[in-house]
Amino acid sequence: MVNASAVINAVYTQDGWKLWTMHSSVEALLQFPEVDPLDGHMTGAISWEKQRAEDVDKIQPDVIIVGAGQK
Q1: CA-CA distance, 31 to 2, in Å (whole number)?
Q2: Is the pLDDT of residue 37 over 60?
Q3: Contact at 8 Å (CB) between 33 and 12?
Q4: How far apart are CA 8 and CA 34, in angstroms?
Q5: How far apart (Å, rounded) are the C-alpha atoms in residues 28 and 51?
Q6: Which residues make Cβ contacts (< 8 Å) with residue 70, sequence separation at least 6?
Q7: Span 45-70, average pLDDT
Q8: DSSP labels for 43-59?
Q9: CB burial class (10 A; 0-12, 13-18, 19+) of residue 25?
Q10: Which residues contact 17 (CB under 8 A, 6 or more apart)?
């Protein structure tokens, strides 16, 4: 499950509603919450940058990218 939002712009034509643009964004994966850095934001025993690099190396997420083209 996810928390997501979308913005859709539609136009009413003689043939009915036509989707003009659509933007969607996943805001959170509920089963896989974001892990906060171990040392807080920018304080702690090591710098935030080094801690973030370690966190990135430890976590191997599965990613799905969904896209569409224009016609």
Answers
A1: 8
A2: no
A3: no
A4: 27
A5: 22
A6: none
A7: 72
A8: -SSS-HHHHHHHHHHH-
A9: exposed
A10: 10, 11
3-state secondary structure of 39: coil
For residue 65, pLDDT beyond 70: no
Q: What is the pTM of this model?
A: 0.38
DSSP-derived letter for residue 33 is: P
Residue 14 has, within 13 A of its CA and on its CB side, a CA count of 0
Token pair belonging to 66: 């969904």
- What separation in angstroms does the CA of 65 have from each of 8, 15, 62, 68, 70? 19, 32, 10, 10, 17
Burial of 48 (0-12, 13-18, 19+ CB in 10 A): middle
Give ∠ CA 41-2-31 in degrees, rounded to 5: 70
